[in-house]
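hey all, quick one before standup. I had two proteins in the batch that finished overnight and I want to keep them in one place so we stop losing track of which output belongs to which input. First protein below, input sequence then structure tokens straight from the run.
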Amino acid sequence: MRTVTCLSYTGQLSNECPESLQPTTMQQCESKCDATPNSNNDECKDVNKVAYCPLVLKFKFCSRGYFRQMCCKTCQGH
């Protein structure tokens, strides 16, 4: 289960997100739910050379799959 929260570009709570664009609050896993962090530190690194991973952490986007993958090292443990 996840919590869907609408945030402004500054990371503040907002009511301006169209409900039609929000992901569902709950969904069934396709195969298995893998909630365990990547234990192999060699494979877990921030993909982008652009320094936006600290912002991903600051605005608490590490729970989103895309950002967790792109900023694996930064998001590790969060």
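OK second protein, same deal, sequence then tokens:
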Amino acid sequence: MAAGAAGAPRLVQYVVVRSDLVHSLSWPLGAVITQACHAATAAIHLHYTDADTQRYLEELDSMHKVVLGAADEAALSGLSQTLTQAGVLHKLWIEQPENIPTCLALKPYPKDTVHKLLKKFKLFK
């Protein structure tokens, strides 16, 4: 496992995007990327004072994000529920005014802390 500052575990911000937005619902790729950016920014903002978030931001030039794909709204909502039950802090981004859940982003965590909850999701394509 790669280490961050002073040998601390490397922090990762996971972003999970609905792949059906591009592949089935024909959203433009740029619009989907925008959703991921909204969720990542919101998660950082909501957990700004968290120690891991602060350390992540201090390592500005070596931030590490992983973008995963969820098959559809049900998979994304199910993941959000699983994360909530596990006490994993995240932001489910719901696009307005359409009220469509599009993606979610976790606050930065050491990879080993949350990876097991995300292992069934593959890299977004």
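Flagging for whoever picks this up: The longest strand covers residues 11-18. The chain has a mean pLDDT of 94.
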